[in-house]
Automatic annotation (TrEMBL):
One GO-annotated biological process of the protein: tRNA nucleoside ribose methylation
Domain of life: Bacteria
Catalytic activity: cytidine(32) in tRNA + S-adenosyl-L-methionine = 2'-O-methylcytidine(32) in tRNA + S-adenosyl-L-homocysteine + H(+); uridine(32) in tRNA + S-adenosyl-L-methionine = 2'-O-methyluridine(32) in tRNA + S-adenosyl-L-homocysteine + H(+)
Organism, scientific name: Mangrovimicrobium sediminis
One GO term describing the cellular component: cytosol
GO MF annotation, one: tRNA (cytidine(32)/uridine(32)-2'-O)-methyltransferase activity
Domain tRNA/rRNA methyltransferase SpoU type: 6-155
Top EC class of this enzyme: transferase
Descriptive protein name: tRNA (cytidine/uridine-2'-O-)-methyltransferase TrmJ
Subunit-level organization: Homodimer.
Keyword entries, A-Z: Cytoplasm, Methyltransferase, S-adenosyl-L-methionine, Transferase, tRNA processing
First-listed, main subcellular location of the protein, grouped into a coarse class: cytoplasm
Pfam families documented for this protein: SpoU_methylase
EC numbers on record: 2.1.1.200
Amino acid sequence: MNFHNIRIVLVNTTHSGNIGGVARAMKNMGLARLYLVEPRAFPSEEATWRAASAGDVLETAVVCDSLEKAIADCQFVVGTSARERRIPWPVLDPRACAAQIRQRAGSEQVAIVFGREDRGLTNEELQQCNLHLNIPTSSEYSSLNLAMAVQVVCYELRMQLEAPRLPVEADAQWDAPFARAGEMERFYVHLEEALAEIGFLDPEAPRQLIPRLRRLFSRVRLDEMELNILRGILAETQKWVRRAQDAESGPGNNQ
């Protein structure tokens, strides 16, 4: 596992002190790559003060204006979630999730995404993730400070780094790189366009079709070659539909 391939992503952090606390939690466990999506206030003196000796993590933090940009080059994305969602997604606890990341972070870019202090990640943001992470807590008081949550996850990653080397998972020897998040987002746009064009998706009443397809492909994890094949199929399907439409509207079919 290469810690340099793992990034911690914070979305819309409200309190700048929490950013400093996260930086300190990361450095305690040996992680250094921090991405901030539209933080309310950064840089700030409070963040620097809370970071203590982890100011270097703040200095190299990458600020992005969207989650899509923060994870665009990642091949494995984990989203933290404290509650059940309308569409169930694969959910792991921090220990099991760290074991999954260990198998991937040697050669893939991995992002662990944490949401807003008051309401976490939106459904749309979570649907950009391969799996979800839930930290077990007491039912009597389940609220975790953002830095505390990051510390728990980073600790489990550290434990995986220190653990004896395990047999390499089968997909580590895959013949093509796994698709990155940005490539998958472009695929989902293409897929939605094609499904609407052939009449399978009604944009006015989409039901839960696209979120469920997102869940399917997130679970499967397409590689770049497989993704190109699927996009080629979509493109050819669109061509056939347009040819058929042109034929129906041709001069010989005018009433």
